[in-house]
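Notes, p. 3: input format for complexes.
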Amino acid sequence: MVASAHSRLANLQRHFQTSDNVGKDGLNGGNVKISPEVAEALSRGDAVVALESTIISHGMPYPQNLETAKEVEAIVRNNGAVPATIAILDGIPCIGLTTKELERLANLGTKAQKTARRDIAYLVASRGNGATTVSATMFFASMVGIPVFVTGGIGGVHRHGEQTMDISSDLTELGKTPVAVISAGIKSILDIPRTLEYLETQGVTVAAYKTDQFPAFFTETSGCKVANSVLCRPNLFLSCYICNAVLYHEYLTSNCIVIYVFYFYYLGRCEHPQEELTKTDNNTDIALVKNNALVGAKIAVAHARMRQ
Ligand SMILES: O=c1[nH]cc([C@@H]2O[C@H](COP(=O)(O)O)[C@@H](O)[C@H]2O)c(=O)[nH]1
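Output follows (308 residues plus pseudouridine-5'-monophosphate):
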């Protein structure tokens, strides 16, 4: 615990930049800008939860994207952690956005470039605006010592990936970057069995929360069993589920996706049967994407607080 606090501080010292000391050129010798709120929380060892920004720019339209981003941040705050939404603005990687910056990103929408790990250098060099995907968000979260990150859905192996080799860099990032990712599974248009195979190859621990199956984003059942599941008695409260999941997680390595199934206790019923699996990126149900993000945020905070 002490060693990990030391390494987080050492990391911070190397990368520490606040809004006040950003150079005129805004590039900071390739460093990142950490918001004062996030920097303070990290230096005190308080719980911080990283959030991605592609869900804001590309995941849903304005103004729902802004409302959702604000709601997710509020959930994180109300549960005792500091949210760190990550994006690249004018070429500066920002860890923690002000309300103005969130509004700017939400307004930019798809004009902000969807930024995976490979795109970071270009966005910084060209002083562009980039919304970070899971891989890029993990990269920055790890750089500044944020160990927990929540998102709606991660990328995976695309259908027919055996021919196209279309595999999200989220999966390789999970294999090499020690940040725990809480998500509702992979996007519904992807190939779950091949994604699980690939995660196994990458050595990623996948722990499914309150199910023994890898959820299918909108549904609890995918037919694909996960090796590790966090099962709880049905009459326990949500907080107990979270504790079990967190304790279990701590037992495992830190590069672990914790998949949760939200609708048992949140929506109360499954409204979206298997045909959801054929939906495309463009017609996903905004309300459910939002629910995934909101419920995931609570679980992520529990993780972050247990690690303090
Ligand atoms: O329902 C969605 N979940 C997740 C994403 C984003 O898509 C990224 C993966 O994109 P790709 O398949 O291009 O690697 C994820 O990291 C996430 O940021 C998305 O657009 N829609």
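The chain has one domain: 2-307.
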